[in-house]
Write a structure and sequence with these properties.
about 475 residues, 15 helices, TIM Barrel, alpha/beta, disordered N terminus
Length: about 475
């Protein structure tokens, strides 16, 4: 994927960082192990770094089969996590649809941490990034990933979108649904078409000091002409383990042919000036969002620009989510250090049944008392309450944040009264609205709807903000 960074060119040369990542998931088809080994050897001959997101059951299968040769070849590459069982039902979206945010995060951690622990133990190194299985995305995942210390979400999911740019969501750097993507298709004329596409991307990066290209495959693609999970778990089916069927194989010679083509494509990309293959950890290091305290003048500037539309803002060379704005306004009013902090979005929004709140003027000192309460937590990270008790009335988090902004912008004191601002979470528009996900992945039941996942995804856009490079 191509991420065009808004920087000035240096000497007119592109500075391209390529992230080449693989979803390592087929734990059924024996030939998928051989194509993984051949792929690793091809990359290692070129000293090219790949990112291997591995399913827990795949790691255990390699361990059971004694494939120390594969782990040895993988030692110089980055490891990511790709769920415990991938496509075995219920997949994460299916079971998280019935959960809230906090209890869903606990549920996800309970189901998935075993696979991560096995991966770490068998691989002998930490997982740096994560990507969901197929289209099985859900916002509760992020709280577990944050709790596990995984900093990057690397995939191509399209439910959360930010103009094709990298973004922060749920406390993780998201390198997904980016503006451009490229891939050498495994077809007869794939190499020449991929060269042309890379040339176009490279030329477009000539005015950028740093740009990212992200390319992804599944190692099993090189051995198989179909996917292992479609053969066993399609449309909600759970084939018993003793009846698992391998994926259909490619004709003899195709695996070697397409691996050779990918190698020649990599050679072609490296023939360009200033092209480097990196891991997601190195990409994260290029992100320049500040993490330290801010000046009171910047908080005032941010407050003055809110009105009744709450969303992320870029100011002072830094990017702030709606939740970070809430934390800054709260800290400003309570006389605390002005350090923006991650707060997960609340469990419910203003449209929830029984969520009516008071209106009219409220006292500034009542606002401060309301803000002094302890916030709930999701796996150790604070979460915004749905409402705050302010002078005997309930006030929604969005309304209170917008009202705090007005208090700060107008310089009001404890004894002053302020009209409650009715706000809207404008960052929610960056989450999709369609809850019919069944047709999006062959593993889902065809009529699967996930209205709760969609609702919570919008609430968690409290954490959404652009990544800065």
């Amino acid at each position: 994927m191509l991420i065009v960074m808004p920087w000035k060119a240096v000497n007119g040369l592109a500075n391209v960082k390529v992230m080449l990542w693989f979803d390592v998931e087929d734990y059924i088809t024996p030939q998928a192990q051989e194509s993984l080994l051949a792929l690793l050897r091809m990359l290692n001959r070129r000293n090219v770094k790949g990112i291997f997101k591995i399913v827990g059951e795949k790691a255990r299968r390699l361990e059971r089969d004694g494939r120390t040769d594969i782990w040895a070849e993988m030692s110089g590459h980055e490891i990511g996590y790709h769920t415990d069982m991938h496509s075995e039902h219920p997949v994460s979206t299916e079971y998280l649809e019935r959960c809230g945010f906090r209890d869903g995060a606990v549920e996800y951690e309970a189901r998935e941490r075993g696979g991560l622990a096995d991966l770490r133990r068998i691989a002998g190194k930490p997982a740096i990034c994560f990507g969901q299985a197929g289209y099985a995305w859900a916002p509760q995942t992020y709280a577990a990933l944050k709790h596990w210390g995984i900093p990057v979400y690397l995939d191509d999911h399209d439910h959360i979108r930010l103009d094709g740019r990298p973004f922060w969501y749920g406390g993780l750097l998201n390198l997904t649904n980016l503006r451009g993507t490229m891939r050498m298709e495994l077809v007869a004329d794939g190499l020449e078409k991929a060269k042309e596409q890379f040339d176009e991307l490279y030329a477009s990066l000539a005015s950028e000091p740093v740009g990212f290209v992200s390319i992804y495959y599944h190692p099993c693609e090189f051995a198989c002409r179909g996917f292992w999970d479609a053969a066993n778990f399609a449309r909600g089916r759970n084939t018993p383990r003793e009846e698992w069927r391998p994926a259909p194989l490619r004709p003899e010679g195709e695996t070697e042919r397409y691996l050779d083509m990918l190698g020649r494509f990599i050679d072609y990309t490296l023939s360009k000036e200033n092209v480097e293959y990196i891991g997601s950890e190195q990409a994260l290091a290029l992100e320049r969002s500040g993490t330290g305290p801010v000046e009171p003048s910047l908080v005032k500037e941010l407050a003055a620009g809110i009105g009744n539309a709450l969303g992320f803002r870029i100011a002072g060379g830094r990017s702030f989510s709606a939740a970070e704005l809430h934390s800054l306004f709260r800290r400003y009013l309570l006389g605390m250090e002005l350090l923006p902090e991650l707060l997960y979005g609340p469990e419910a929004d203003a449209a929830a049944p029984g969520a009516e709140v008071g209106a009219g003027a409220i006292r500034v000192d009542d606002v401060k008392r309301a803000l002094a309460v302890e916030y709930p937590e999701a796996l150790g990270t604070p979460q915004l309450p749905e409402t705050f008790e302010v002078g005997g009335v309930r006030v929604h988090a969005v309304d209170l944040t917008c009202t705090m902004a007005r208090i700060i912008a107008d310089g009001l004191g404890d004894g002053d009264r302020v009209e409650l601002v009715r706000g809207a979470l404008e960052s929610a528009k960056h989450a999709g609205d369609d809850d019919l996900w069944g047709p999006r992945w062959i593993i889902f039941p065809e009529e699967l709807r996930v209205p709760n996942v969609v609702r919570m995804s919008k609430l968690q856009t409290w954490t959404l903000k652009p990544a800065l490079f």
